[in-house]
Every structure is written in C-alpha cells, then in structure tokens.
C-alpha cells in the first residue's frame, strides 16, 4: 500500500511538478506567435496543436523518468494506469485557443493526486513567467511570494471569472443565465479569460474573488483547485461538496467569504 507522501517528500514532488510545468511552458514560448497546424477534437470548437502534444510528451517524460510506477492522466492521452494510488494529472496547454490566436493567457498545469486528494500542484504561465504552486497543508505561492485570496466580503465588490464549455447548447444557455444573475446582483465585473487553470490561480492570488465553470475536466482544475484552497479559499461543486480531482465536475471557487452567495445564484439557475 502506498501511503500519502509526508511533508518532505511533498516538497520533492512539488519541485518535480514545477520542473515539468516549466519545461512544458518553454515549449509554449518556443512556438508562440508561430504559424502552426491545428486540428479539432470532439467538437469543432475544441482545438489541439503540435504544442499540446509536444508539451505533453515533455511533461510525461519528466514524470515517468522519476516515478515510472505512478498513474498518469493527461488531456491528450487520457489515463495510463500503473496500478498506483498516486496519479499525475496534466494539462500540457490550458488555453489552446488563446495560444493559437496570440492571446497571452495560457499555461501548463501539473498536479499529483492521492485517492481523491491533490497533494501538490503547479501552474506555469510562460509568457509572464509566473509559477503558481501549492503543497497540501503548506500554503500557496506565486514564484517566491506566498499568496492569499481576496479579503472582499461583499458580492457587489467582487470580480468574478467564468468559462464556457465547448457545448454551446444547454450549457452555454445556463452559463449566460448565470452571468445575468450575477450582474443583477451588482458584481463589480465578470471576466472570461479562456484558461480555467489560470482562472483558479487568479482567485488564489486575489486578482479575482470567485470563479465558476460548468463541466471542467480534472486536468483543467486539479492543480488550480489546490492552489486556491492553500491560499485560503474554497472550492466545491455546485452543491457545495468537495470535488474529486480525478473526475469531471462543475467547479465553484471563491475567497470563501462570498461562496454561499455564489452557490445560491448558480443553484437558482440550475433549478
């Protein structure tokens, strides 16, 4: 039986997660603003490029070199089972559409999950050289500075972030309805940046007060959710329950103080 890593080992695992995320980000930097071939997967709005696949290979190679017995779950290759209780959850390029259009909001995301608990997480924005990271029970960081969520306590003083799933039917309608209700509640603003991992890190660092998105995949939120929690925030599903970082979920994240109000608005739309 594999035991959850102790504090010292968690730091070693975080170092590896940060190294993998950063080297994946170096591939982003190399290809950024270049004309690269793009394909679609699933639905016509979901894009994948050579940058996704090369970055993923780089990250997987680094992890497998050090921990060949650990499971791997990544966006492009899916689950690679090794029979371990530890699973690396990887998004090699979160914000592919932004990347392709030259919008500088994208990142690599690497997390290690034990059972249904994320142990370490690293999210690297190569354009701005920002490494967001966290270790369970040890706090959250942006580069060398400790970060914490916003102290805002009122919804009308809050900056919210949302994202749109590729389903442009019912899911899009519900999300637009949610935005309407937030504006009616007089939130200060709503932004849509196109990278859920960065959105969560922006909540963790106090740049935004809350975030919600319908139907996120594990690689979109596993690292970012831990970073929010370790920065003092709250992450839950729509019912206010803890999330499983290995399963698709509705994600609601906030500084904690506005969480009940955010859930109330979102639940009203879902009725």
Keywords:
271 residues; alpha+beta; 8-stranded mixed β-sheet; 5-stranded mixed β-sheet; 7 helices; 15 strands; 36% helix; globular
Describe this structure as you would to a colleague:
The protein is α+β, with helices and mostly antiparallel strands. The protein is 36% helix and 29% strand. The chain has seven helices and 15 strands. The protein has helices spanning 7-31, 50-66, 96-101, 170-184, 196-204, 218-230, 259-270; strands at 38-41, 43-49, 71-74, 78-80, 86-94, 107-114, 117-125, 130-135, 139-142, 145-146, 159-162, 189-191, 210-216, 234-236, 249-254. The strands form three sheets. It has an eight-stranded mixed sheet with strand order 4-3-5-6-7-8-9-10. Strands 12-11-13-15-14 form a five-stranded mixed sheet, with helices on both faces. The chain starts with 6 loop residues before the first helix and ends with a helix. 45% of the residues are buried. The model has no long low-confidence stretch (mean pLDDT 92).
